[in-house]
Structure formats: C-alpha cells, structure tokens
Amino acid sequence: MTKPVSTPVNNLEKIRKSLGRRNRSERLFRWYGRLAIFIGLAAVTVLFTDIVSKGHGAFRIAYLQLDVEYNQDLIGVDNLSDPKQLILANWQAVPKQALREQFPDVSGRSDKRKLYGLVSNGAGFDLKDRLLANPLLLGTQEKVWILADDDIDTYYKSWLDGEPYAARLSDKQVKWIGELHDQGKIRLQFNSNLFTRGDSREPEQAGIRGAVMGSLFTLLLTLMLSFPIGVAAAIYLEEFAPKNRWTDFIEVNINNLAAVPSIIFGLLGLAIFINFFHVPRSVPIVGGLVLTLMTLPTIIITSRASIKSVPPSIREAALGMGASKYQMVLHHVLPLALPGMLTGAIIGMAQALGESAPLLMIGMIAFIVDIPGGFSDPATVLPVQIFLWADSPERAFIEKTSAAIMVLLSFLIVMNTSAVWLRKRLERRW
Amino acid sequence: MQATNILILILGLGIFAFYLGRGRSLALAKPLGGIRHIHSLPSYYGAHVALWCALPSLLLLGLWMIFDDPLINSIVLKSLATGGMAIDASSESLLLNKITNLADGVLPRKGEEPALVVAADLMLRLQEISRWSLTALMMTLTLMGFGWSWSRISSTFRARPQVEKVMEKLLLSCACVAIFTTLGIVLSVLFESIQFFRSVPVDDFVFGLDWSPQTAIREDQVGSSGSFGAVPLFVGTLLISAVAMCIAVPVGLMSAIYLAEYASKSVRSFAKPALEVLAGIPTVVYGFFAALTVAPFLRDLGASFGLSVSSESALAAGGVMGVMIIPFISSLADDVITAVPQSMRDGSLAMGATKSETVRNVIIPAALPGIVGGIMLAVSRAIGETMIVVMAAGMAAKLTANPLDSVTTVTVQIVTLLTGDQEFDSPKTLAAFALGLMLFVVTLMLNIFALQIVKKYREQYD
Amino acid sequence: MNAINSVTGAKADVKQNLEVADNQVTVGSCFTEAPKMTMRNVNVFYDDKQAIHDVSVDIAKHEVIAMIGPSGCGKSTFLRSLNRMNDTVESCRVEGEICMDGENLYAPKLDVVELRARVGMVFQKPNPFPKSIYDNVAYGPKIHGLADTRVDLDEIVENSLRKASLWEEVKERLHQSGTGLSGGQQQRLCIARAIAVSPEVILMDEPCSALDPIATAKIEELIEELSQNFTIAIVTHSMQQAARVSHRTAYFHLGRLIEVNPTEQVFTMPEHELTEAYITGRFG
Fold it and tell me: Whole-prediction pTM value?
C-alpha cells in the first residue's frame, strides 16, 4: 500500500493559493499577445503613414507664372518646320528673358544665375513643345505657367506647410519667391510629369512612366511564360506523373526554388541568359525570363492546390463516360481549377512586380530616360526606379520616391484584392 | 530573320496545319458516314499535323540558339590564330568581346587592328550564314513534318493516342523546368566560382578576415591574397539576420498564438489580413523605410542617449527586416498551431490548466517541430534578403558584433560587385558568384532541412 | 404477426411521444439527499439553437451516474457544461444553475481553473499529450503546484498510475512517449492524468467508444474501483456499459432529460415509454 499524499481538501488549498499568481501570468501572457499584434499593426500603420506623409506632396508641383515672349531672334528660329534650326535653337533663353523681365532690377552674373535657377532647366523645352503644338505663337507674347526648379518646389511646399526648408536656396531666391507668391505668380499644380515622363536627373522632370511601362512589358512576358508552363507542370504533376523518384525530385526542386533567395535568380540570369545566350542586358526580355523562373514555383504550387481541390468524383464521372484522360483534364478538371490558378497567377505577378534584387543583376538599373516601347527596348521597372531614386542625393527625390512607392503599392493592392475577390467569387464548396 | 519572327511564323504555320489536317479528316469522314467512322475526333488529326509541323523545327531553333554562338566564336578565334595572333585562354574572352562589339558597330572600326576588323567581318558573315541556313532548315523540317503527318491521315490512323503521348511529354518538360532552373543555378554559380577559386584559394575566401575587393582593380594586385576574405560578410549577414529574428520570432510567434488561441473571430478576421499586408510590401519599400526613416531615427535616438549609432546601423536594417519577416513566421506558426488537435487543448484545459499554461506546456511543445521549421525558413529568407540591406546597410566590411555599427552582408556585396559595367572575368565579379554559391548552399541546406521537418510534422497530425 | 404489429404500434407511439416531448417533465428520482452536484433548469444554446432543454437533476456523492440516449441527444453537451468545457466553444451559452457543494459553477467570481481541478474530465478519444508517460501524469500536479518536491511528484505519479491500474504495465518505461501506448492504455493514462490532481468529480465522455472490448472491460473495472473515492458522471452510447458500471441512469432524448432512476430499474422497468423504446432497441 502507498500512503495517500494528496487529499482533495489540502489540494484545493494549494490550488487556491496558486490561483492569483497563475491568473496574473495568464493576463500577462495575453498582453504579450496583444502587444505582438499591436507591434505588427503599428508597423503597418507607421510604414504607410510615413510613405504617404513623405510622398503626398509629389503629386503637386510648383509652377511660376511668367510673361514669355517667343522672340524669334532670341530663340534663333524663324521656321518651325526646319529641324536643323530646332536643334540649334536656344530654347532656355525664353524663360530666362521672362525672368529678367519679371525681376528687372537683378544684375550681376551670380545673381542672374540664381534668378535663372528659379525655373527648371527643362522649362525651355516645355515651351518648345508648346510652340510646336501651336506655331502661331511664334513672335507673340503670353502668360504661361512654367515648371519651377526642384529646390524652389521643395522650399515653396515646406514654406506653405509653415516649416520653410531653404538650405539649398540663397536669401535672394527666397525673397523672389516671396514676391512671386504675393503677386500670385507661384502655385502648386497637379504634377502630370510624374505620370507622363521617363526618368530624369532633374527631380522636377522625372516621372515613372518609363518604369511603369518597363514593369508592364516585363510582367507581360512573365505572365505569358510562367502561367502556361506553371499550369502545364501542375497538371502533369497532379494528373499524369507516376509516383517515382523522378517526380519526387521535381517536387523537391519546386519547393526549394520557392525558397531560394531572389538574388540567386539574378546570378542565374546574368550567367545563363546574358553571358551564355547573349540576351541583351537591361531589356524586359531578360527581366521577364528571370522573373518567370522566380514565379514559376509559386504558380505551380497554387495551381496544384487548386487541381487537388477538384473532387475525384468529377474525374471518375468523366472517365466513366469514356473520356480520355486528356479530355477529362481539359473539359472538367481545368475549368474547375482555373479560378484557383488565376488567383495563384495574380499573386505570383504581384510578387514579380515588387521584385527588384534579381533585376539589379541583369542590368535593369541603367539610367533610362526614354519610355520603352517594346520587349527589347532598354527599360527599368518600378521597384528598381524606386531604388534608384532612393539612392539619389537630391532632397526632392525623397518625395518622388515615396510617390512612386505609393503608385507601386496601389498596383499591388489592386492585384491582391482582385485575387482575394476572385477567390471569394469563384470559390466552390464541394 | 530574327528568331522571334521565325517563331511567330512557325506558330502560324502550325495553326494553319491544324485546320488543314482537321479539314482533311472531315473530308475523309464524310463518305464514310460521319466522324464516328474515323478513329479519332477531327481536331486530333489537326493537332497531329500541327505538332509534326511545329515541334521539330522549334526543337531545332532551340538547339541552334544554344550552339551557334560558341561555334561562330570558335571559328573566328581559329581564324585569328591561323592569322598568326597569339591567343591564350585569359585574353580569349576579351578579344571576343572586342570583335563582337566591332561587328555590332558598337566600337568604331577606325584605328583598330586590321586583323580584328577582318575577324569582325568574318563574324558578321558567319552570323548571316547561320541565320539563313537556320531559316532554310526550319522551313524544310516544317514542310517535311507536314507532309509526313498529312500522308498518315486515314480513317484508321490512331491520332488521339499519338497526340496525347506527345502532350504528356510536353507537360513533363514543363514540369522539368524546375529541375533545369536548379541545374542552371548550380552550374552558373559553380563555374564562375571555380574560376574565382583558381585565383583566390578557397580557404582564404572562407576564413579570410579582410574583405576589400576594390584593391583588385589594379593590375598588379589581381587576386592579391587577403582582399577576398569573406568572414566579415558572413558575420555581417548573421548579425543583421540575428537582429531580424530577435524581432520577428517573438512578435510573429506571439501574434500567431494570440490569433489562434485568444482572439475573437472579429479581431482575427481583421488582424490577420492586416498583418499579411506586411508580407505583400515589396522589399524595396522596406529598404526605403529603413534607410530614410528608421536609420536616421535610431541615429538621433542614440545621440540623445549619448550613443553613437551609425546611420547605416545593422539595427535599422535588421529591425526593418524583422518587421518584414513577422507575417512569414506568424502565418507558418499559425498553420502549425491550428494543426495541433483540439483534443490536446481540451485535455489540458480539463485538467484545470489556464490557457497560457496550455499554450506553453502542451501546444508549443506539440507544434515545436513545425515552428522550428518555420523559423529556419525565415532565417534562410533573412540571409538571402537583398534590397533592405543594399539600401540600409553599409558597404564597408567590418568585423563587429555591435548592432549599432555598420556592417555589410553577402547580398550587398554581390550587388555592389555586379552592378555597373565591369569585365566579366575579373576576380572582383567572379567573387560575387563565389558569394552567391555560399548563399545558395547555405539557404538550400536550411530549406531542405526545414521543409523536411515541416512535412514530417504535417504528416503526424494528418 | 402479433409481434410485428406490436412493434409498429410502439413505433407509432414513439412518434406521438416525440411530439409531446416539448412539455416533457423528467420522470423518476432526479433528486437525492446530500447531493454533490445539483443542476436546476439548465438550458444550453449554440447560437440560437437550443441543445439542452430545462434539465434538473442531482448527482450524489461517490455515485456513478450514466447518461444514455440516442446520438445527438445532448448528453455530451450536458456533461461538458458540468466543468465548463463548453467555454471553449465561442457560440455556446449556458443558462440555469449548476452547483457543486452548493456553489454555483457559473458565478462570475468562480475561477474555472479551480473548478476544473475539482471536476476532471476524460474524453472520448484518448488524448495523451505528446510527452512522456510520467510528464503526462505529472502535468496536472505541476501546473497546480501540488507537489513540493520531486519525491512528492514521483509519489503522486505512481499513485495515480496505480489507481488507474496502469502502473504495472508502464513502470519500466515511464519516460517513453505517452502516444506510444495502446489505445486502452492511453485511455487509462488519461484517467491517471485526471486523478493525479485528486478531483472530486470525474466526467467521462464515452471513454470506451474508441477501444476494443478487452480494453473496455478494464476501464469499466477501473470505474467501479474509482467510484469508492470519486463521484463519476459517464456518458455512454452502450446500454450494457451503463447497466454494468452505473448506480443511476439518466436517459436523454432530443436535449431533454426524460427519466432518471436507479440503473436496475431503468433497465428492467423503465417508467417512461421513450426510455423503454430506447432500451429495447426500437430506435437509437
């Protein structure tokens, strides 16, 4: 016989004594959990607020109103249809002249240079475009809103917000801006350049159009390659593959590739596509190829899952009718699995859209001003553009970068919500 | 003709052939009394013709694209060698590069060595020949394939099994892309690394304490020992990853536990997708956030405590990386925690255990293999993460374990060594591939091991 | 012929009675003197669906009460509300009064941790933790801080395993995993785990349904022994089992308590037609 060590009564006392401590630790544990959730949510909030607060300004940009005169002698053009004249013309002289007229008492070389610094150094070309669109303007005068320099833009916005940032401006420039403001000759306008232009060294002229088009071409190629290949691979593995070592090996490969760091795919692209197959650098073709290899595992895995979710009874019904295996897959399994596959493809494309590391390896970080028009034009992509701008020293590029991030994130949000929507909409319960 | 044009032409011909084949089988079927009197459906006959039309020439195109450049190059080099030029292995690629550029008109021909100009012309000629012969061959193949399969169409011809056999092979080859990708990765990093290790001994690379690849630019110092010691990079990578895991593991795990065990349905349905938003944000955005917001904030914060925090501190990069990994850990942990059977929870709760005691003593131990596997996958991701560290970590290789200091990582160095224009065969660029090899091997081992653990764990509760 | 007629006749009766079950009052001896637990007008809901209707019954000290009834009749739900295991189901709501020693179990200030230490539970499927046999049994004493020393703990573990008649089978492998035992052994391990904290009441939710007949016999034997020290409420789908192990039997039907009587009486001359119909196997 063993002696009874515990009786209900003295146990109960012990338990009651321990209750306070245990409930405290329970509450503490619960608070740890809440804290963890809070940290995660706070990170999301801080990140988004930070980006938005930095970037919202970039959607508006400062313009100066000047009286410009399209003086033929000043520009050096009398025939707008002569391309030679157009190339040799001194377009920047027009805004300079207008600035001198606006501030007639400015003299001295350095002061004048500061004065000319008020407008973007692309302002002359904007006026040229205006003139070419309406040749009758030649020789006339008009009031035009002209793009301001990025430092002016930065200062003016910060001054409007009540915290003037004048580090890169001289006192005189600050004074001039004050005068212009008082006359209502400086204002913020919607920054259409951001969406219509390619990259530029000048922040006020830089836009994301080139990068967006580059992303578009790259993604288009990625989708065209990875979706059919991924779906075919998934169909093979789910419906046809015999259970043997070879298919096991394929599976292991797919699962591992999904976890291989993306930069390794960049090395692959550099060594195989560029150095071996001589695909040109910096073009959407090579970017698309690399991203295809990268997104393929994602697409295969999600497609397999959605094929798996088609119940076997449907397959049996089709086979029972005398359909061949291909007819069964093509007519029954594939249509039912398609929504899931599309969801997977969208998620894969969203990943590819945000990816930049491998593209750095294959030269898609070149400085490209022209907007790419096809798969073989040198291009960069949106995330790499963000990387490039984030690296630029000009303060105005911070704003631009954040704005580009906002655009990128909104693309991603649209893609991901449409994936969720698609899944909800087309989801079938068996 | 451009390869893309040929491709489009062949595909067009294939579609055309499909309709021809289908039409012929229909014509065959008519006098017999309808399509049920021929062996397969008309579209299978069409597909058979189309496949025979397009596949052989596409295969040829693929092979041609792989082999024509090396072939042309070797012929050009041979012609140079017979022309009396001394060529050794190291100058070969340089020379070829030059000739290619001359041929493409990238380099001006004026003032170049006449032998090279001749070689460039030869290259152009050869390329021309190659293009035309390719086109001719492909056309012949297409026509032959068409003729062959056309002649086989008859009411008893078993088109469907044949087509399906080919389809299965096509599907298999799609599935094999994964294997070729892995193979491609291994080959590309391995070959370049072997070349690198010819000039820099392996142990200098793996155990060397000094990393300064820039010195290797100077001719007299190529491959000079001591400048390619990768230990500081490994340490930097580990330091940043450690910082990241210090944030991601507790936060990710606790939020997974809270969401799985405590949170009400409404909290869960809100907080879970909100956390997953973190997973969808591109890394370049995190990099921007780390470099422009977190790093200056930490520097100023440190300064107000009298600490000198580098503006490229490991803490900033690692911290933001940790935030990025939170959803990764929390969703993996959530999977394994919810996979623990409810009967375990009931058993523990019925004993009078509090919820947290149940979690700590029963659920976590039961889910441990899955959690460990998830954490290993997360570590592999942290080690391989590129953009955050490229933007927020330093460039200088420092051997330090101080998270307030600036360190550099393997991925940062790969990017710095390979971006911009440089000779492909210099040890500096090759070093990037050696680093890539290390990265690949380490992450591969982590992944295989982790996936194995997770798989076993899943099977246990299935 | 007659037999068949009577059976179909009885079925018709049953149908009728199923309809009148709405204002059913429990027949038999629901209440005892000096009860351990008292339930009064208990209603249990899942969201809007009512699973238990107005059940009032007592459980006497050191008795074994069996709850039987067709599947889906709410007997498990009722059992789980006795140690508030239903709290883990978000949509579940309990109304009415459930008291142990005169103390309301659903009083706001009552700590469920303490309650569950006093009212242990054994589940349908053996659910040992993925830990060693020793740790499984030591789990309760450890979390409740019942053992001050390692020696005490060893003693509690040994005692509990002995009481669960498992000691002889596992004493050589206490530190092997509990999940490696056979089904019957696992269930006895779960019983040992439950009695290691010396509860006053043990709830058993079909403890033998996943076991083979030999293991079942062992558990039943064990229940009989345990009834000397513990109050036991057992839900079972097997009438034979109820007849073998219990002192009193409660018959549930569609969420209502139809009849409570000494087991012998229930199985020989049930008071209610539904009970009779069930135990004679006309439905269920």
Answer: 0.86
